[in-house]
Amino acid sequence: MTDVFDKEKRSQIMSLNRGHGNKSTEIEFQNLLNQNNISGWNAVPKNIIGKPDFAFINEKIAIFIDGCFWHGCTKCKNIPKTNTEFWQNKIGKTVDRDKHNNKELRNNGWIVIRIWEHDLKNNLQKERIIKSLNIRIKIRRFARSLKFIN
Q: What family is reported (predicted)?
């Protein structure tokens, strides 16, 4: 189907549409943090490369909750059957942007954690996520106490 707007006008229109986040996965992760008494995090912190969904700013840990469709999960393989080339291109750009943001954050001393939407539907995976996160937080807090990181 041909768009009624030219590329420039469509871009302008789309730029006015601000994302509201994937509420169900973000709320699920926030509940997981609260249930496990994990504190010190900010939801949707400002001025951090890539706009993570959650961050432990003092520990420099950025957490992204990636929707399987939008971020190209290879396990779920959700590419629509119609307009496939468009979606592959769009999702490919998102994956490239994610890789770029990961690299930029790591170059600035951040730990980057990416959690797939489908992992929040699996209790064993949720346990692993929490254990891994707790270890990383403790290591970063200890390193900060020794002045190894800012």
A: Belongs to the Vsr family.
